[in-house]
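User: structure tokens for this one?
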Amino acid sequence: MKATRRQAREWAVQMLTAADMNPPEDILEFRINFWRQIKSLDDSEGGSEGKAVRGGLKDFTEDRFLGVMKDKDAIDAAITPFMEGWDLVRLGSVERAVLRMAVWELRETGIPSAIIINEAVDLINWYASPKGRLLINSVLDRYAKSIEGERAGRVAEEEERAKARALKNKEKKIGE
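Assistant:
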């Protein structure tokens, strides 16, 4: 089974949840152990997913994990005004992990906000209480709207990179 960005987000949430519940002293060792466990689980099930963990999707996962770990205080401060009577400590650790990762993606990537919010809500539906999706959706939607102007440039850059990749792939196919 080939891993997807959705799977990479799930791995990031797993890493963030584990780190939230038991903060690691050594981030590098924590990451090495995580990937070792993922490969071990995959090998025991006879899958080949462990091979797909390398490269882009592993980087995608690690970017989210390391980005949230580095900017956790700033992310928490940024979303607190949008929590409307809720406190982050009242949320479950999975909800916190998903919320922090989605806010990091909104702040740091050019991925369209609708995709980020949809992925976050799907992760909450799968790994946490379905009731949590309403809060997560509401907080992320209001936060995304508040930073819409800042994101416009990053989204345009991401679209340009996607067009360039598509053109390069098309040229490559023509050359074959």
